[in-house]
Every structure is written in C-alpha cells, then in structure tokens.
Automatic annotation (TrEMBL):
Highest taxon, organism lineage: Eukaryota
Protein name: Replication protein A subunit
SUPFAM superfamilies cross-referenced by the UniProt entry: Nucleic acid-binding proteins
Gene Ontology biological process terms from the UniProt entry: DNA recombination; DNA repair; DNA replication; telomere maintenance via telomerase
UniProt record similarity statement: Belongs to the replication factor A protein 1 family.
Chief place where the protein resides: nucleus
PANTHER family per UniProt: OS03G0429900 PROTEIN
Residue ranges of every copy of the Replication factor-A protein 1 N-terminal domain listed in the record: 5-101
Amino acid sequence: MADQLTTDAVSTIFHAEPPVDATVLQPTLQILNIKKIQAAANSMDRYRLIMSDGKHYLQAMLGTQLNNLVETNALTKNGLITLTQYATNVVQGRRLLIVLGATAAPGPADRIGQPTNVDDRTAENTEAKANPVAQQQQAAPQAAPQIQSARKVAAPAARGASNAARGGRAGGAQPSGPLYPIEGLSPYQNKWTIKARVAHKSDIKHYSNQRGEGKLFNVTFMDETGEIRATGFNEAVDNFYEVLQEGKVYFISRARVNIAKKQFSNVNNDYEIMFEQHTEIEPCEDESVPQVKYNFVPIENLASVEKDQTCDVLAVVKEVGELGQITAKNGRPFSKRDITLVDQSQWSVRLTLWGKQAEAFKSEGYPVIAFKGVKVGDFGGRSLSMFSSSSMTYNPDVGEAHSLRGWFDAEGTRVSYNTFNSAGMQGAAGANSIRPDEMKTIGQIKDENIGMSDKQEYFSTKATISFIKSESFSYPACPTCNKKVVEENDGWRCEKCDAVYPKPLHRYILNLSVMDHTGHVWITAFNEAAESLLGKTADELVEMKEADEGAFNNIIHTATGKTFTFSCSAKQDSYNDQMRIRYSVRRASPIDYKLEARALIKLIDEMQI
DNA sequence: CCCCCCCC
C-alpha cells in the first residue's frame, strides 16, 4: 500500500532548501481530509487539504481553479493526489503549500500508515489569528531563519526550473525571484515575480490632503490563480502608467505586498501590491495567462441583482445623452453622461458615466460594449453607474458579443424595449408589464391569504372579467377633492371644500367578478383602472346610461369576457362586524402577449419533465 | 500615501 505514496515527499516539500517544486518532485500523496474554508463575501470557496506520504502529513490550500476536483468528488478522503504544479509560501515562519495543478486517483479504504504532523510547531502557532501584524512579530524569533531562507529562494536553480515550468520568461532583464502564482503572494516574502495580465487600469488620479499633493493609479492583475490590486503613487505613475496596458501580460517583481483594505475594493485578494522605486515591470509575449472573464447579467435580470452590487453587462448603446454637470455632495463639480443600454432580453437600462469617461464618450452607430464591474442602483427601478474600477470594452471578441451584434442589426432597432420603473419596484418591474414576480392565480391569492396581514399587500393576476355590477358603478365626486358630493337645491355640495358646484364629476367604483382556471373573486376598480377596462369615463357612462341604455349595456357587455393583467392591492377591513378582504385594482393592462409568451416559456423551462 | 464613485 505505502509504495503508492512518494516516500518522504511531505517533509521534502516542508523543509527542503531551496524549496522544491513540480519540476523536481511530483509526489503522489493520500488525502486525509478535505475542509471547505468559510468563504469571504464575494469570494470563491476555498478548500484545505491534509495530505500524507504515509509518514508525515501537511496542510495545503487547493487553488480555486482546482475546486472542481473536490466538487465533482474526484478528490475524496483517503483518495490519492499527484501534485503536478504547486508553490510553497512561508507564512509566519511556516511553509504553506498551495496546490496549483493535480490529478486524482481512487485510494484505499483507509489511511496508509500512521502519519504524524510534519509541522511540529503547530500547537503553539494556532493562537493569534486575528491580528496579522502582532502575529508576525510574535512569530518573529522562530520565523526569522525561515524567512531569511525563503528570501534565498531566488537561487538560480529554483528560479530556472520554476520559470521553465511556467512557460519561460520573455528574456531581457534579470529576474528578481521565482515565478509565483498571484494566490501565493503575501507580505511575508519579497523575492517574487508574477506573470499577470492587466485586467483593469484606472485613470491617473490627482489628490491633495494634509500630507500634500499627489497622484496615483491602480491596476488589477490576474493570472490563473487569482487577482490582486496594485497601486502606484507619484514617480510610479510616471514610470509605469504608460507601460501597463489593459489586457496585456507582464512580469512584475520587486514590489511591496501589503494587507489590502478590503472595504475599499472589490478585488478578491487579502493583499495588494504597491509599486516602489525599484519595482520592475516587463512586458511578456506569452498569452497563456487567462483573459478577463465576464459574468454577464441580462438587463432583464438586473431586477434581481441587489442594489449597490456590481455586475457585468454586455449591451448595445442605443442612445447617448448630453454631457451634463452636477455638483457632488462634497461640493466638487462632476461631468456626467447617461447612456441607454439594450440587449437581447429586450430590456433597456440607463448607465451613467462620470468625469473624463463621460466627457470622452463617443459612440458611432450602436456599439456593443462589455461593462465589467458596474454598480447597480435603484434609480428609476434599476440603473447602472460606472465605478472607477469598472471597465468598458468596445466590441469585445467574445461569442456573446457577436451574437448580440447580429441580433441587434437584424431586429434590435425595431424592438420596443421594456424599461424598469420605480413605481412599486420590489424585485422586478416593467413599464409595459406588471411585476411578473408577483403574478398569482386567484386560487393562490386565496390559499396564501393575500391581504390577511395588517398591512396592504400587492399582487398581479391575469384574469377574465366574468361579471360587472352595472347598477351602481360610480359616485358623484367633488371636482376639486374627489370626495363624494351631495345634491342640493342649487347644485352639488362638497363638505370638505365647503363649496357648491353646478355639477359633479363622476368617479368609478366599479365592482367586477374576475376569474381564471383556479377560481373567481370580486374586485373593485377605481376611477383610472375602470376607465381602462370600459374605455369611457364615468361621466360619459352616467350620461350614456340615462340617454341610451342599449349603448350603455353594450359597453358593459363588451368588457365582460375580456382578459387583463390586474395589478391589485389587498387589505383587510371590517364590514358589518365581519372581517373581509377588499381587493382593489390599481391598474389594468391588456395582456402583453410577448411578455406573456416569454413568461410561459420560462415556466415550461422550469418544469422537470 | 487613495479609498471619492457623486445627480435626478
């Protein structure tokens, strides 16, 4: 059994100087345990592995790009793992293994041998997790020798091997340390090189505070293991701003790694890079580093993205607003420009550009733009806004962009787009539709006791008018305040306004029975809603009923049997000491067959047949 | 060492 495992691999990985890597040793180990680490908000799950060579075991972190090995059960407890790519990293004087490439194989039913912890200092190191600085100082006496030796990692042999394994260096300048995965960077070592793509580059920002004036810029670097934010101040701006181009790949070395202030950035890394005087950045021709990944949200689905979250949107710029000027809370003026985006979901949304981006924005025709990391707001239901960390890529070379282009050119200019609206925006809303997420059948309205709670509740239902009460459908109202007025000798008196009017304005209180396949219910349509059901004002209908009862009946008859989407409110009240629920129609819209068809398709898709 | 992300 034990011969399946690589003898002494664990202690070699943990202790060898210089550290070994996969060009020297590709060990097969047994997995003793797999633990999911509580993921921070907006970061991926991480797995911690305990791996054994039969004699010793050690802890390792699995690179997130290998999560699928765990999630598909390829890696299991007692199973075997062969490490094909890995890095070690000294943290608090302990060497931490990060697995970057591995293959899995089934293992025996039980643990092989009686391995012991390769790290005999584990017990005393389990304290003080909260404060990395204090922890570092506390660990210093023991850590010092190992940190020292970790710096020596830049030994030519290790470097050459590591570089060869990762595709080689473009040549030129003297490298400053072994090639590290971004995931392996930490403040506890300073000799490293990363090979990374610039996923985003900010504008140059000028600032002035108590300490004086300055300028800075940020970039986000990414490689196959993760991303990290880097900042350059002042001279670093002069040295590197032009060198670093969005989308290109570089070797970066001799920069500082600090603890990131997570609250200021949505880049998924506990650390960040600070460019320094001696920082070296060289372009790299190797394109094997991953491209920026997008996770596009169809505009239609923005309703379900929480306010203040960021997301990626791929859209056509349908309209470009004028450049405007606003004054921010801090009193400073800002340029802004609103543009209107549309996509194949046939929804549109407003996006706001700020500052230089707003001033410089040009759009010829209807460009397709990929927006990365835009902020979702709730103005007008849903809106988008650029952050300084957001990026905008014209006509990106991704499949979705090509199909969007094709679709828009073929039919996108003729589509009437749904727009978000703020009225009652509680999840989703459309100008031409009624909140689709609250569609209920009449059966559901009753089963779920909609309206039985203390506060008013809202729902929409698609139903057919089965009966309209035509005896009393309106009341004489005050033209000023809509309150009921009473006829007197010389006109109509409003108590509230203390005024007499020559004639009242009739307003609807139309009671109707509506039904669907699950039941029927009585609902009340007030003035505007009833007007849209009957196509006449209450005044017109009162007059018609007196003058031509046949025409009046015809109006009622025509409406009966028609189907609408009723946007309703439900509220309890008591009537003759009896509790009942009153359903009021806030709005009645004819069925939007396009939306209806789409909703039905969605329902069919959700069915598990 | 920034860290604001604005308005209607």
